[in-house]
Write a structure and sequence with these properties.
seven-stranded mixed β-sheet, three-stranded antiparallel β-sheet, alpha/beta, about 30% helix, TIM Barrel
Protein backbone atom coordinates (compact mmCIF):
# COMPACT_ATOMS: atom_id res chain seq x y z
CA UNK A 1 0.00 0.00 0.00
CA UNK A 2 1.16 3.50 -0.83
CA UNK A 3 0.25 5.06 2.52
CA UNK A 4 1.12 8.65 1.62
CA UNK A 5 -0.12 10.22 -1.59
CA UNK A 6 -1.97 13.43 -2.45
CA UNK A 7 -4.58 14.08 -5.13
CA UNK A 8 -6.21 17.10 -6.73
CA UNK A 9 -8.35 19.01 -5.89
CA UNK A 10 -8.46 17.72 -2.30
CA UNK A 11 -4.80 18.72 -1.82
CA UNK A 12 -4.20 22.12 -3.40
CA UNK A 13 -0.50 21.40 -4.07
CA UNK A 14 -1.19 18.21 -6.02
CA UNK A 15 -1.59 17.78 -9.77
CA UNK A 16 -2.48 14.08 -9.49
CA UNK A 17 -6.09 13.20 -10.22
CA UNK A 18 -7.68 10.40 -8.14
CA UNK A 19 -8.37 8.29 -11.24
CA UNK A 20 -4.75 8.70 -12.37
CA UNK A 21 -3.58 7.53 -8.95
CA UNK A 22 -5.61 4.32 -9.14
CA UNK A 23 -4.50 3.57 -12.70
CA UNK A 24 -0.82 4.11 -11.82
CA UNK A 25 -1.12 2.11 -8.61
CA UNK A 26 -2.55 -0.89 -10.45
CA UNK A 27 0.06 -0.59 -13.21
CA UNK A 28 2.81 -0.65 -10.57
CA UNK A 29 1.55 -3.73 -8.77
CA UNK A 30 0.01 -2.02 -5.75
CA UNK A 31 -3.06 -3.64 -4.20
CA UNK A 32 -4.02 -0.66 -2.05
CA UNK A 33 -3.50 3.10 -1.77
CA UNK A 34 -4.29 5.68 0.88
CA UNK A 35 -5.11 9.22 -0.13
CA UNK A 36 -3.61 11.31 2.67
CA UNK A 37 -4.85 14.78 1.82
CA UNK A 38 -3.66 17.91 3.62
CA UNK A 39 -5.94 18.64 6.59
CA UNK A 40 -8.91 17.20 4.73
CA UNK A 41 -10.78 13.95 4.30
CA UNK A 42 -13.47 13.32 1.71
CA UNK A 43 -17.08 13.00 2.84
CA UNK A 44 -18.10 9.40 3.52
CA UNK A 45 -20.62 9.06 0.69
CA UNK A 46 -18.04 10.34 -1.83
CA UNK A 47 -15.48 7.85 -0.50
CA UNK A 48 -17.89 4.97 -1.07
CA UNK A 49 -18.82 6.21 -4.54
CA UNK A 50 -15.18 6.34 -5.57
CA UNK A 51 -14.34 2.94 -4.07
CA UNK A 52 -17.25 1.35 -5.94
CA UNK A 53 -15.67 2.36 -9.24
CA UNK A 54 -12.49 0.39 -8.49
CA UNK A 55 -13.29 -3.02 -6.98
CA UNK A 56 -9.83 -4.44 -7.83
CA UNK A 57 -7.92 -2.23 -5.40
CA UNK A 58 -8.53 -1.14 -1.82
CA UNK A 59 -8.68 2.64 -1.47
CA UNK A 60 -8.28 4.20 1.95
CA UNK A 61 -8.95 7.84 2.75
CA UNK A 62 -6.56 9.21 5.35
CA UNK A 63 -5.36 12.68 6.18
CA UNK A 64 -2.01 14.46 6.59
CA UNK A 65 -2.51 16.83 9.49
CA UNK A 66 -0.30 19.90 9.95
CA UNK A 67 0.52 20.12 13.67
CA UNK A 68 2.80 21.98 16.05
CA UNK A 69 5.16 18.98 15.81
CA UNK A 70 5.13 18.67 12.02
CA UNK A 71 3.00 16.62 9.65
CA UNK A 72 1.13 13.55 10.89
CA UNK A 73 -0.64 10.97 8.76
CA UNK A 74 -3.87 9.91 10.41
CA UNK A 75 -5.55 6.62 9.51
CA UNK A 76 -9.10 6.09 10.74
CA UNK A 77 -10.07 9.67 11.55
CA UNK A 78 -13.65 10.34 10.35
CA UNK A 79 -13.04 14.03 9.60
CA UNK A 80 -10.90 17.05 10.39
CA UNK A 81 -11.66 18.26 13.92
CA UNK A 82 -11.12 21.57 15.71
CA UNK A 83 -7.92 21.78 17.74
CA UNK A 84 -6.01 18.93 16.12
CA UNK A 85 -3.26 21.24 14.94
CA UNK A 86 -1.96 20.57 18.44
CA UNK A 87 -0.50 17.08 18.29
CA UNK A 88 -1.56 16.28 21.85
CA UNK A 89 -5.17 17.03 20.86
CA UNK A 90 -4.83 15.00 17.67
CA UNK A 91 -3.56 12.02 19.67
CA UNK A 92 -6.44 12.43 22.12
CA UNK A 93 -8.98 12.36 19.29
CA UNK A 94 -7.18 9.46 17.60
CA UNK A 95 -7.32 7.41 20.79
CA UNK A 96 -11.01 8.20 21.14
CA UNK A 97 -11.87 6.65 17.76
CA UNK A 98 -9.08 4.07 17.57
CA UNK A 99 -7.16 5.84 14.80
CA UNK A 100 -3.47 5.28 14.02
CA UNK A 101 -0.99 8.19 13.81
CA UNK A 102 2.27 8.27 11.88
CA UNK A 103 4.84 11.06 11.90
CA UNK A 104 5.52 11.89 8.26
CA UNK A 105 9.04 12.57 6.94
CA UNK A 106 10.25 13.61 10.45
CA UNK A 107 13.74 14.72 9.34
CA UNK A 108 13.00 16.38 6.01
CA UNK A 109 15.45 19.18 5.18
CA UNK A 110 17.04 19.10 8.64
CA UNK A 111 20.41 18.16 7.13
CA UNK A 112 20.16 20.74 4.35
CA UNK A 113 22.82 23.49 4.75
CA UNK A 114 20.54 26.02 3.02
CA UNK A 115 17.83 25.37 5.60
CA UNK A 116 20.39 25.72 8.39
CA UNK A 117 21.50 29.09 6.99
CA UNK A 118 17.92 30.31 6.68
CA UNK A 119 16.87 29.25 10.18
CA UNK A 120 20.20 29.88 11.87
CA UNK A 121 20.01 26.39 13.39
CA UNK A 122 22.05 23.34 12.51
CA UNK A 123 20.59 19.94 13.32
CA UNK A 124 23.24 18.13 15.33
CA UNK A 125 21.32 15.45 17.25
CA UNK A 126 22.40 11.85 16.96
CA UNK A 127 19.67 9.27 16.29
CA UNK A 128 19.77 8.27 19.96
CA UNK A 129 19.44 11.90 21.05
CA UNK A 130 16.59 12.51 18.61
CA UNK A 131 14.80 9.43 19.87
CA UNK A 132 15.08 10.59 23.46
CA UNK A 133 14.54 14.33 23.07
CA UNK A 134 11.94 14.79 20.31
CA UNK A 135 8.48 14.82 21.87
CA UNK A 136 6.78 13.86 18.61
CA UNK A 137 7.80 10.21 18.92
CA UNK A 138 5.91 9.92 22.21
CA UNK A 139 2.66 11.00 20.57
CA UNK A 140 2.49 8.78 17.48
CA UNK A 141 2.10 5.08 16.80
CA UNK A 142 4.51 4.74 13.88
CA UNK A 143 7.26 6.44 11.88
CA UNK A 144 7.40 7.07 8.14
CA UNK A 145 10.97 6.09 7.29
CA UNK A 146 10.75 5.55 3.52
CA UNK A 147 9.38 8.67 1.87
CA UNK A 148 9.72 9.12 -1.86
CA UNK A 149 10.30 12.88 -1.57
CA UNK A 150 13.09 12.54 1.01
CA UNK A 151 16.82 12.08 0.57
CA UNK A 152 18.31 8.69 1.53
CA UNK A 153 20.07 10.40 4.45
CA UNK A 154 16.76 11.69 5.81
CA UNK A 155 15.09 8.31 5.40
CA UNK A 156 17.96 6.33 6.94
CA UNK A 157 18.11 8.66 9.94
CA UNK A 158 14.37 8.19 10.52
CA UNK A 159 14.83 4.43 10.29
CA UNK A 160 17.60 4.47 12.88
CA UNK A 161 15.45 6.50 15.27
CA UNK A 162 12.50 4.15 14.76
CA UNK A 163 14.71 1.14 15.42
CA UNK A 164 16.04 2.68 18.64
CA UNK A 165 12.48 3.28 19.81
CA UNK A 166 11.28 -0.10 18.50
CA UNK A 167 8.50 1.66 16.59
CA UNK A 168 6.85 0.26 13.44
CA UNK A 169 7.91 1.76 10.11
CA UNK A 170 5.95 2.81 7.05
CA UNK A 171 6.74 3.90 3.50
CA UNK A 172 4.94 6.02 0.94
CA UNK A 173 5.61 7.88 -2.28
CA UNK A 174 4.37 11.27 -1.02
CA UNK A 175 3.47 11.79 -4.67
CA UNK A 176 1.80 15.00 -5.80
CA UNK A 177 1.89 14.14 -9.52
CA UNK A 178 2.07 11.09 -11.78
CA UNK A 179 5.75 10.76 -10.86
CA UNK A 180 6.76 8.53 -7.96
CA UNK A 181 3.86 6.10 -7.67
CA UNK A 182 5.16 2.58 -7.09
CA UNK A 183 8.51 3.53 -5.57
CA UNK A 184 8.00 3.50 -1.79
CA UNK A 185 5.20 1.73 0.05
CA UNK A 186 4.13 -0.21 3.12
CA UNK A 187 3.87 -4.00 2.90
CA UNK A 188 1.28 -5.74 5.06
CA UNK A 189 1.40 -9.34 6.19
CA UNK A 190 -2.28 -9.83 5.39
CA UNK A 191 -4.55 -8.75 2.57
CA UNK A 192 -6.56 -5.62 3.39
CA UNK A 193 -10.04 -4.98 2.08
CA UNK A 194 -11.51 -2.38 4.40
CA UNK A 195 -10.56 0.55 6.59
CA UNK A 196 -11.33 -1.52 9.69
CA UNK A 197 -8.94 -4.25 8.55
CA UNK A 198 -6.30 -1.61 7.82
CA UNK A 199 -6.60 -0.13 11.32
CA UNK A 200 -6.41 -3.59 12.88
CA UNK A 201 -3.24 -4.44 10.95
CA UNK A 202 -1.66 -1.09 11.77
CA UNK A 203 -2.30 -1.41 15.50
CA UNK A 204 -1.16 -5.02 15.28
CA UNK A 205 2.18 -3.93 13.80
CA UNK A 206 1.94 -6.41 10.94
CA UNK A 207 3.63 -4.29 8.27
CA UNK A 208 6.96 -2.78 7.20
CA UNK A 209 8.36 -0.11 4.89
CA UNK A 210 9.42 -1.31 1.41
CA UNK A 211 10.65 0.13 -1.88
CA UNK A 212 11.12 -1.02 -5.46
CA UNK A 213 14.39 -2.43 -6.73
CA UNK A 214 15.80 -1.91 -10.22
CA UNK A 215 14.50 -5.38 -11.07
CA UNK A 216 11.01 -4.24 -10.10
CA UNK A 217 10.88 -6.20 -6.84
CA UNK A 218 9.52 -4.89 -3.56
CA UNK A 219 12.31 -5.09 -0.98
CA UNK A 220 12.42 -4.24 2.71
CA UNK A 221 13.65 -0.73 3.42
CA UNK A 222 16.84 -1.00 5.46
CA UNK A 223 20.19 0.72 5.77
CA UNK A 224 21.88 0.59 2.36
CA UNK A 225 18.88 -1.00 0.65
CA UNK A 226 18.33 1.97 -1.70
CA UNK A 227 21.88 1.69 -3.03
CA UNK A 228 21.66 -2.08 -3.30
CA UNK A 229 18.33 -1.90 -5.12
CA UNK A 230 19.74 0.60 -7.62
CA UNK A 231 22.49 -1.85 -8.56
CA UNK A 232 20.26 -4.91 -8.86
CA UNK A 233 20.26 -6.34 -12.34
CA UNK A 234 17.04 -7.22 -14.05
CA UNK A 235 16.61 -10.95 -14.53
CA UNK A 236 16.11 -12.24 -18.10
CA UNK A 237 12.54 -13.11 -19.01
Amino acid sequence: MDTHVHTSPSSSDSMLKPDELVELALANGLTAVSMSEHDFILEEHKREEFRARYPDIFINFGMEVSTDHGHMIAFGMPSYLPGIRRLEKLREEADRVGAFLVVAHPFRRLFDPVTAMRTGKKFELTPAEAAGQMEVFKLVHGVEVANGANTPEENYFALEVANILDMPTLGGSDAHSTSGIGTFATAFARSIGSTQELIEELHGGRFEAVHKSKANRWVRFDHGSIEEAAQELELPA
